[in-house]
Design a protein that fits this description.
This protein is of the alpha+beta class. The protein contains 4 helices and 2 strands, in the order ααβαβα. The chain has a two-stranded parallel ribbon with strand order 1-2.
Amino acid sequence: MLAIILRGKGYRVTAREKFSALEKELIQIAPTHILLDRNLGWADGLVLCKQIRRFPQFAGTIILIFSAYDITAAQCERSGCRWGF
């Protein structure tokens, strides 16, 4: 649903349900922003954010995390994503 809304606003969106080859796909896409849910079903968005931050080429990529679950600023800071709007 969020991808549809963002596309309607003119953003180029690539949505994934799973990342089997995380680094390879991200390098191909070269995102300026990554939007993650905390509860991905198959992974925790905070853990996935940490994995993305291990790759130097994504050090400057803005990673936003959202969720219906509680997330603290400290959890976001430890994982490398942005918190608070």
